[in-house]
Amino acid sequence: ENKFMKKIVLLLFLMIPLISFAQKGNDLSKYLVGAVKLTNGQVSFDQTYSVPGKNKFEIYDLLKAYTKKEILQGENHLKQCGFTENDSINGLLAASVEEYLYFKRAAFVTHRVRFSYQLIYRIADEKFSIQMRRLQYVYDDIPNDEIYYAEDWITDNNALKKNGKALTRVGGKFRRFTIDRKDEIFTNAALSVGAKQ
After folding, report:
1. Beta-bridge partners for 148
2. pLDDT in tens, 131-163
3. pLDDT tens across 37-90, in order?
4. Which residue(s) pair with 117 in the sheet?
5. φ, ψ for residue 99 (rounded to 5)?
6. Are residues 57 and 71 in contact, defined by beta-carbon separation less than 8 angstroms?
7. β-bridge partners, 131
8. Which of 1, 106, 154, 162 could make a disulfide contact with 175, Cβ separation 3.0–4.6 Å?
9. Nearest to 30 by CA among 121, 160, 170
């Protein structure tokens, strides 16, 4: 009886990683149908935030500081980063970004692409919107330097299997990591100004 119990405990112990993996694997809802929207045929992510008690110039300064420190000079940034629009009067701030997007980073394996996009903030008293658009990917280690466009890789048609309930192997990977990076940028931008979603 004791041996039998030990076997059951061992089996349960061995299944824990499988159960947690299955749970992680099943929670794909935020990546599925409708997660990537097309505006005039272009992939674009947009979000508007409310910032009670702060005026346009305060929000502008905080977003500019956040973007400079965390994105344009962030851990994975590349040289071709910079602000392309600095207009505090009209509440417009834009940046052109190129950074590494890591799919896998381990001691002996690095799988990454150069990821470029535009960030555009439209700022008013007590609110701002953020847009990420013109998303492109380039593999460093492939000689021809082919550009992969988000429109060809991460849309519902390209990154979801026919039933819409699962991600494809390659397009799905690009979609998942892109959405995670977008979420990180948008959330941290909102936090940097004390915004409410």
Report:
1. 137
2. 999 999 999 877 677 899 999 999 999 999 988
3. 999 999 999 999 999 999 999 999 999 999 999 999 999 999 989 999 999 999
4. 97
5. -150, 165
6. no
7. 46, 120
8. 154
9. 160
